[in-house]
Design a protein that fits this description.
Two copies of one chain form a homodimer.
Chain A: H1 19-26, H2 30-38, E1 46-47, E2 53-54, H3 57-72, H4 77-95, H5 103-164
Antiparallel strand pairs in A: 1-2
The structure holds a DNA duplex (30 and 30 nucleotides).
Chain lengths: ~160, ~160
DNA sequence: AACAACAGTGACGTACACGTTAAAGATGCG
DNA sequence: CGCATCTTTAACGTGTACGTCACTGTTGTT
């Protein structure tokens, strides 16, 4: 019974996926998954005996999060790395849940997380603002041009009716 | 009097800037300005006799617009090119302001502009939505973590007062 | 006219974000 | 057990968005 000191929680059904399946599920390539790991965006997943990567549902969620940040929001991988590192810190604190002792250390980590979150929020707020301004501009332009189309349509209709007469 | 058919509007004070000044004003490098021109993001500006580029206020505005799209909104230059091309079409229509004849052609151009604007709006709407969701998530996380900080602070304060007693 | 400072055009270099082989080992299935 | 399929690492290739020379030509100042 010399188990390597792990897996004691009732491991009911912690699903694990190989890289191929994760790639299919998330829509990113295997290469990209390894790349993200290399760059520190993903924590090194477990491995099976042969060395194959085994991803958890958490990992899958995180990959989807990364893609969101990248594709829809235009963050660079470096920025995303900072953001997910903060996320990691949060996870650590949650798992390190011995509710007393080392309170000052815990306080400090929490404070750092708050700082990171605040910085992220600032960036996001700024982007939202810029985008909403754009949205307004675009809508205004669209309105004006749509009006012009109506005018043109009417002008053409008039021309047609004049030809007929 | 065989002028090459141009410049008849009272050209009161159309300011022109050389590339260096434009670079300073907009914060982009000269190299980038030439690059944008090469890629079709900026219309080729006027030149003076020696070949130096002369930018207008319109050009400067456009450069700032491009930077907004790129930096805050995460559009690629290819996407931006599409967007500013639509803008160009609008300008052309405004300048080509002979109010009758060729009405169907004008209608078609207007319709194309509307299509482009609608596509842009769709993209922007999507991004705004994604960002606002993020914003909510971040705020929620921040709330939770801030609560935890208060708890920790109180716990520490308690510990302190116990030491004193 | 001389001269520094600025601007022009290539051409090559670079950082990011992956894609694409290539070669070798691991797994699943009949 | 054999064999196709999958996964591994390593190395090189690619497109985007510029940066960095290097060298030539242009402008403003004295």
């Amino acid at each position: 019974m010399t188990s390597p000191a792990s897996e004691d929680q009732a491991q009911a059904k912690v699903a694990r996926y190989q890289i191929g399946e994760v790639a299919d599920r998330t829509g990113v390539t295997q290469r990209t998954l390894r790349f993200y790991e290399e760059k520190g965006l993903l924590r090194p997943p477990e491995r099976m005996d042969g060395g194959f990567r085994l991803y958890s549902d958490d990992d899958v969620q995180r990959i989807e999060y990364i893609r969101q940040l990248q594709q829809y929001l235009g963050f660079t991988l470096a920025e995303i790395k900072e953001m997910v590192e903060a996320e990691d810190l949060r996870q650590q604190i949650i798992s390190t849940f011995r509710p007393d002792r080392e309170l000052p250390a815990r306080l400090e980590r929490v404070t750092r997380i708050i700082g990171a979150l605040e910085r992220q929020l600032e960036v996001v707020d700024h982007k939202v603002e810029a985008l909403q301004e754009m949205q307004g501009d675009l809508r205004a332009k669209l309105d004006r041009v749509t009006t012009r189309r109506h005018e043109l349509e009417e002008a053409i209709a008039e021309e047609q009716s004049q030809k007929k007469s």
